[in-house]
Amino acid sequence: MKKEKNKMSVVQLTMITAINMMGSGIIMLPTKLAEVGTMSILSWLVTGIGSMALAYAFAQCGMFSRNSGGMGGYAEYSHGKSGSFMANYSYGISLVIANIAIAISAVGYASVLFGIELSPVHVGLWTIFTLWLATVLNFGGASITGKLGSFTVWGVIIPVLVISTVGWFWFSGADYAAAWNPNHFSFFDGIGKSISITLWAFLGLESASANMDAVDNPKKNVPIACLGGTIGAAIIYIVSTNVIAGIVPNADLLNTNAPFGLAFATMFTPTIGKIVMGMMVVSCFGSLLGWQFTIAGVFRTSAIQGYFPKIFGKVTKTETPIIGMIIITVMQSLLALMTISPTLSKQFDVLVNLAVVTNVIPYLLSMGAVNVILKTENVPDKKRKVTTVISIIASVYSLYALYSSGVEPMFYGSIVTFAGWVLYGFVSYRFDVKKDLEFKM
Q1: Burial code of 379-405, b = ≥16 C-beta within 10 A, e = fewer?
Q2: What is the domain range of residue 231?
Q3: Could you read off the pLDDT of 269-288 as tens digits, one per residue?
Q4: Residue 118 lies in a domain
Q5: Rounded CA gap, 402 and 220, in Å?
Q6: pLDDT over 50 (residue 1)
């Protein structure tokens, strides 16, 4: 089949799915996991199982669902238009928040790379600049974004592969054991405290589904990209973060904004560490490119379906929603200023936890629709039952992730969600009331 112009290939979509996770998820992980200690490997096992269950369920949804629009389309099978709206709304809000955290990660690495001490205000301003740069580079369309993502992902793949293989020569079992539980958490508290950050690392496993309208042969290629990207990321995450924990002392990991750079400086020389920091900045920026494109696609699909204002659905000749991208980046800029915190790490934590909470909502709505999708499309009973059980496992994990995120993120996430129900009231006439009137007539 001939590739459509301005459409991504399955390789490009898999790369974008992987970089959406690795490019943003991995570069700050060692520092955040050091807050718990090396017992966080137990969280990896829990999150790995949960994420694979989610990825498998999303792959099946992508294969059998007749609805477009990713998770919003899936949710509609069970929850109707209101559920579809909430999936699109909460996912869009999550991406708006998460992209700011990604930009902050890039700024953090860059500040260490150039040896610059940034004030909270300066962090906010550089974060805004990074967001706008990524937005402007996305104006060329899906094909260009895919090509850039395929290139920049090597900025994280190369250092991570090196640390996962060669890094074992510097690995100290004694240091790893000493960092097991430095804060003396109980077994379940230790696992719970790092669940949020490990799930953050896997946010993006659904982005293949979100970009299904921008890829060739989505019925076949979306499941491949979803599962392939998640499996690859899971292996890389677990191996690389645990190797680093045996190379760099836990106390040093806690106090750096560039953990991979510190690891390479410890293994080799400070110059090598600087080079790796530069590669990580490029990779993180590439991830931001992919996410900015993805969020514009989510808002565009929502606008076409009548959920969001029509202006988000306007596109150029290259099928790029430039006006929507600009509006989204304005919102992100304001939010970046509103969340300015005493330290970069604190601002990162606030944004990550809130992004996780809001992102889990469309996960749950989608998992609740899996059985209905498969029944509607007459999938054989055996396959349907297996997939339904896996979706239940994914749902239980998602609920546990919400619980582990903490009271404050749940509080603000709940307010955002409740606001969504209010906003749906302004557009529900197009779907619910109008349909009832047509039925009665």
Answers
A1: beeeebeebbebbbbbbebbebbbebb
A2: 10-432
A3: 999 999 999 998 888 888 88
A4: yes
A5: 32
A6: no
Listed in sequence order, the residues at least 6 apart from 404 whose beta carbon sits closer than 8 Å to its beta carbon are 192, 193, 195, 196
| pLDDT above 80 for 19 | no
Report residue 318 as tokens.
């290259």
How far is residue 228's CA from residue 345's CA, in Å, rounded to a whole number? 31
Q: Which residue has the tokens 């040896």?
A: 115
Domains of the chain: total? 1
Query: Rounded to an integer, what distance in angstroms lies between the CA atom of residue 197 and that of residue 401?
Result: 10
Beta strands, E only, 207-299 = none
Residue 79 lies in a domain: yes
- CA-CA distance, 144 to 137, in Å (whole number)? 9
DSSP letter string over 135-146? HHHGGG-HHHHH
pLDDT in tens, 367-426: 999 999 999 989 899 889 999 999 999 999 999 999 988 888 899 899 999 999 999 988
Give dist(CA 204, CA 211) in Å, integer.
11
Q: Can you tell me whether residue 259 is helix, strand or coil?
A: helix
What does the block give as tokens for 34? 């050091």
Residue 2 within a domain:
no
Give the phi and the psi of residue 8 in degrees, each rounded to 5: -80, 150
CA 303, distance to chain mean position in Å, is 22
Q: 4 lies in a domain?
A: no
Residue with tokens 């909502």, as numbered in its chain: 361
38 phi and psi, to 5 degrees? -75, -10
For residue 41, CA distances in Å to 38, 242, 350, 400 come to 6, 7, 23, 17
Asked whether the predicted pLDDT for residue 15 surpasses 60, the reply is: yes
Phi, psi (deg, nearest 5) at residue 114: -95, 5
**Above 60 in pLDDT, residue 438?**
no
Domain of residue 166, CATH code: 1.20.1740.10
**Of 97, 157, 30, the residue nearest 328 (C-alpha):** 97
pLDDT digit string, tens, across residues 152-175: 778 888 899 899 999 999 999 999
Residue pair 43/393 in contact (Cβ under 8 Å)? The answer is no
Q: Which range scores top for mean pLDDT: 19-28, 212-221, 367-376?
A: 367-376
